[in-house]
From TrEMBL:
Gene3D superfamilies: Periplasmic binding protein-like II (3.40.190.10)
This protein's name: Transporter substrate-binding domain-containing protein
Domain Ionotropic glutamate receptor C-terminal: 16-229
Lineage, top ranks: Bacteria, Pseudomonadati, Pseudomonadota, Alphaproteobacteria, Rhodobacterales
Keyword Signal among UniProt keywords: yes
Single GO cellular component term: membrane
A Pfam entry, by short name: SBP_bac_3
Keywords: Signal
Residues of the Solute-binding protein family 3/N-terminal domain: 16-230
InterPro entries: Iontro_rcpt_C, Solute-binding_3/MltF_N
UniProt-listed PANTHER family: AMINO-ACID-BINDING PROTEIN YXEM-RELATED (PTHR35936:SF19), MEMBRANE-BOUND LYTIC MUREIN TRANSGLYCOSYLASE F (PTHR35936)
Length: 234
């Protein structure tokens, strides 16, 4: 395992686990007013570290390079609302699922019709939604971050955005500019913590912690807190 060794204030050795996070995808993760990583995955990750006996350190990284920089050793895990897919699993490994498959949805400017789903559609680069847009026959425009996709539809650069509905709900609810267009889609599986394929011991420790959170209800409680009462998932 590649986690570094740090020392706590009490002098006991504790393994430091560097958690790679995009921190630009609320409510999963974002930077708060105190310039700290916040959100569901921050709370979840801190609890995982506590149960697994790690000292968590949070490392922010752009979405486009988040997998290559895990492989190169910039951090030890990816905790960034990453859907487990066969393509990604060829490059890195994943813990067991900590968040179920999240429906994807399209949003567009108010007044748009369902035809925009087949037009020019934005998604974050390398996301499962980007792959789906290409397969659907629509024109894909990729952006480095999800915030960039929202700006693109607002300024008319694209017709719509396809993203996780959990991310889009606050955007639609807090602005009269955007509406959901058409039905939800199920793309890919649930979300897992990404690790290097060689880090089998780390993966086992993470899985044990996740399983304990599912068993005692802690994970369900966190999901309900951050996602408008969605509960009894596990």
């Amino acid at each position: 395992m590649t986690a570094a060794i740090a020392f706590t204030a009490g002098g006991a050795a504790a393994e430091t686990l560097r958690m790679g996070v995009e921190a630009a995808y609320p409510p999963f993760s974002y930077i708060n007013d105190q310039n700290e990583v916040d959100g569901f995955e921050r709370e979840f990750g801190d609890e995982i570290c506590r149960r697994a006996g790690f000292d968590c350190v949070w490392v922010t990284n752009d979405w486009e390079t988040i997998i290559p920089n895990l492989v190169s050793g910039n951090y030890d895990t990816i905790l960034a609302a990453m859907t487990i897919t066969p393509e990604r699993d060829k490059v890195i490994d994943f813990s067991e699922e900590y968040y179920p498959p999240d429906p994807s949805a399209y949003i567009a400017l108010a007044g748009a019709g369902e035809e925009v789903r087949g037009g020019v559609v934005a998604a974050a680069a390398t996301s499962v939604q980007a792959h789906y847009i290409v397969e659907s026959g629509a024109t894909l425009v990729e952006f480095p971050s999800w915030d960039d996709t929202i700006a693109a539809v607002k300024n008319g650069e694209v017709d719509a955005v396809l993203a996780d509905r959990g991310f889009l709900e606050d955007i639609v609810n807090e602005s009269d500019d955007f509406v959901f267009v058409g039905e939800n889609l199920t793309i890919g599986g649930g979300m897992g913590i990404g690790v290097r394929e060689s880090d089998t011991e780390l993966k086992a420790k993470l899985n044990t912690a996740i399983e304990s959170m599912k068993a005692d209800g802690a994970l369900n409680a966190m999901i309900a807190k951050w996602f408008d009462g969605r509960d009894h998932v596990y």
